[in-house]
Fold this sequence. Notes:
Layout: H1 16-24, E1 30-35, E2 41-46, E3 49-50, E4 54-60, H2 64-71, E5 74-80, E6 87-98, H3 104-114, H4 128-136, E7 140-154, H5 172-176
Antiparallel strand pairs: 1-2, 1-5, 3-4, 4-7, 5-6, 6-7
Amino acid sequence: MSTADPRLAYDYAMTAEEITEFVYEAPRYATVSTLRKDGSPISDGVGIEWDGTFIYTSMRNTRAMCRRLRRDPRMCVHVMNADYPVRWVRWEGEVEIIDDPDYERTFRIMHRYMDATSDAQQLKDFNMAEYEPNYVDQGRTMYRLTVRRLQSYDARKQAARFELSTGRELTEQERSA
C-alpha cells in the first residue's frame, strides 16, 4: 500500500501514527465517494472508524449508497481538517459487508460524533437513549474498506521549505538556519 504521492517533489505525507492521530484528534466527518450506474462519482458524508488497517462505516439499509456498493464495491474515503495549514487523508479500495453483532461498532462510530461529550454534537437537547433505537430501527449495514491506496498530506511539513504565513519559498540559507 502506497503512502506517498510519487508526483510530489517533496514528501508532505503523514506517517501511520500521524494519520491515526489526525483522524482521532477531532471527530472529523468523512466524504465517501462511490459510483453511480453510469460510472459517474457521487459523494456523501459519513462517520468512520480507522483501526490502522481498515476503514469502517455503517449505513442505514435504505440509503442509495448501499445499492451502489452492492453493484460496485469501490469506495474512496477522504477526511480533511477545517483550518490552515491543511491536512487530509484519502483511502481508496473495495468494501465488503461484515457482521456487526448488536451494532457494537455502529454505536461506537455513532457515539464518536453524536455523544454529548463530542465536539461534533451541537444539539443541546439531544437524547442519546431515545436516539439509539431509532438509529438502527430500519437496519444498518457495516462496511469494511480494504485499503488499496492511501495518500495523505500535511501542509505543516512545508514549513521546512516555505514560510507558511506568506507562501514564500525559503532561501537555502533560511532553510539551513
